[in-house]
Structures are given as structure tokens and as C-alpha cells.
UniProtKB/TrEMBL annotation:
Organismal lineage: Bacteria, Bacillati, Actinomycetota, Actinomycetes, Kitasatosporales
Pfam families in alphabetical order: Peptidase_M14
Organism (species): Streptomyces jeddahensis
Keywords: Carboxypeptidase, Hydrolase, Metalloprotease, Protease, Signal, Zinc
Annotated GO MF terms: metallocarboxypeptidase activity; zinc ion binding
Protein name, per record: Zinc carboxypeptidase
Cofactor(s), names only, from the UniProt record: Zn(2+)
One GO biological process term: proteolysis
Domain Peptidase M14: 51-392
GO cellular component terms given for this protein: extracellular space
Signal sequence range: 1-22
PANTHER family attached to this UniProt entry: PROTEASE FAMILY M14 CARBOXYPEPTIDASE A,B, SLL0236 PROTEIN
Amino acid sequence: MSARRWISALASTVLTAGLGTAAVTATATSAAAIPPESHCGTEASGSGSNGFVNHDQLTSALQQLETSTGGTVDVDVAGYSNQGREIHIARVGEGDKIVFVQTQIHGNEMHGTEAALELLKRWGSDSPAARELRENVTVVVIPRLNVDGGELDQRQNAMTWDDVVADFPQLEGVAPAWNYNTRVGGFDVNRDFNPDLDYVPAPEDFPGTSADTGWYIAPEAQTSRDVYKALEEEFGTVDYFVDLHNQWSCYATDDLENMSPLSISAKFIDNPAEFGDWPKFDMNASKRANVAVYQALQGRGESGFGDLTLYPQDTNLPGTALGSYQLRGSAAVLFETSSQTQYDGMKRNGMLTQQIETGLGGLVNAVADGSIDALDESVYDTIPQRVYLPAD
């Protein structure tokens, strides 16, 4: 079966509900074997990002969720984007273990936001399982960090270098940060992080490179940092940090037997010691967290969810949220869902959203019941590597 036919076989799971909070009921079709010469198309479904929640709809959905749960899901504003939009935060549970989840740091990577709304609804419900979970874990979610990029359907935020200099006058005359995109007038926010949460931008640290730490010049990154810092003050260590992303649409498992709808990773930095002394850094904890996600998806039988792969393990990006927070002691998990709105529109939205719900839900369950501590981190190294399939 070609990649195009595989995509078509999953089309029945597409969701177009305006608020994105309808229950996902469709069963994903199992991915079939794909020879390496198969076509992998990027023909968008025609709806672009219109089927995903926009900022106003997200705000309304969160307010409704807080009301319907009687405040069990506590919603607040954590900060504001460069264009003045609210960056929302939702919190559920009162357990001693903390899971911090962040979605849509890249504005055109939208499936995590849809999944977060569904999971918050589940975790905030009055079911016995939800009540027990809330006793054992606290989950904090930023359901859309890059709210301006989300409205513009672009990777970057909406901020010029002049805006940065206005906020940080000491950078007058300095070359713009390497992650600034002059064409769209915005920054890749996920290169703006630093393990030093008190770092102040210094002229000598610009323009920097992808192998350097970031600066917290973007208000979106500052908001994430401030949430993380507050959680550290409350809990001591932020036990788990999860960042929900999207990647190129066309990847296969390393045996080329199946398409891979998701890649995960625990590895973000080559040499942690290069960036100082971080005694809480624990790669094995990150691996166990990824194994929890992997096993939750493997447990879905013939759904196709089990064909997840490892994101490239030669990644060295200390300026990412994952890299910086991992250095501080968080077990870190990257989700890379195989879809982009500019290529796929709403294709497979239901299936792709549901796989995030399954994987992230499995991780939170494992944290809540303590089973994550008994997982074998060596399983992480057996997860298949992803293989790039070019479009033709």
C-alpha cells in the first residue's frame, strides 16, 4: 500500500468539531507495509487549520471546562504574547508528583492543543479513576504557548528584532538572534530557552547558534520559564516535562514496514556538562518516561499507534525548553506528531489527536500509580529509528 493510500485509509478519523472537544470514537486503521519507493504525498485536505481551535475558541473551551468541572480544572492566564493575546494555563490534581505539559510552541503544530483539551476534560471528570489520579499527581498544561503564531498558522511568534531591543535596550546595535526569521518577522520560540532561569540577555551572547542556550527574549518563552520557576518553588523539582510538537508528514519505521505517525525522544543535549553543573539531570528518568508513552501506544494493538519511532538521537539543542528543563532535573518527553497544517490540513486529525491522548494519558497514569519507577529504561533503546520518506 502506498503512503497516499495509507493516508486515505485513515481519513475516516478526521474531526472537524469547532471546539475540538468532542470525544474521539473512530478506530484508527492499522498502517500497512510500505516499500521504500512508495509515493508520500503532501496534498492538503483543503481545510488548512480551520478545523483546529483558534484563540477565541480555545479561550471559550477552557472557560467552559473550568465551569463544567466546578473548578476542578483551574484555568488562569500565565502571561501574554507579543501581540497581547492571553497565554492560558490549566491545572488539575493535587498530588505530590508534577507533570508540566506544553503545546504549540510552534504556531503551526496544532494537534497537541486538541489532545490537551480532551485530556483535561478526562482528568477533571468525576469518574472514580479521575478522582484517584488527581490524588496522586498534579498536571499543569499550557495548551497553546505560541498564541500569535497559532493565529497566523506559522512556526514563529510575531515579534521583530526592534521589539526585542525595545524590551532589552542593552542589545542596541547587536546582530539579531540566529533564530530570527526576517521574512515573517518572528522567532523560533523553541530556541529561546536557558537552564539558568535568571539569565539576563547579554550582548556578547548574540547572535548565537543552535548549539548554544537561548536568552528568554520572547514573551512566550518568558511565560513558560515563569510557570516552570513557580512549579520548582512549589514542588522542588518539576518531575516531568512534556512538549508536544509536529514534524514532517512522511516517516516510516526503520524496517520500512509501516508509516510512523509519531516520533518521541528523551535526548536533546550531547554533553550536559558543557552547560555547567546540573546534578539533577537524569537521562534514565527521561528514558523511563518515554517508555511509558511507548508502552501505552503499543498497548493499542492493531490501531497503528504502535508504529511510533525515535526522533534522531544526535540532536543537540540546549536552547529548547526540553533541553533546558531536562538539565534542571525534569524527565523530558518530546512528542513529534507526523503532520503539518501547511501540508496536510485536517487529514487524520482524529487519529493523530487520539494517539497523543493515548501516549500522554499513559504517561500521566504511570506517574500517578507509581508504575513508571519500575519501567526498564533500556526498552527506550529498542524503539525503532524513524526513516525519512521524501515527497514525490
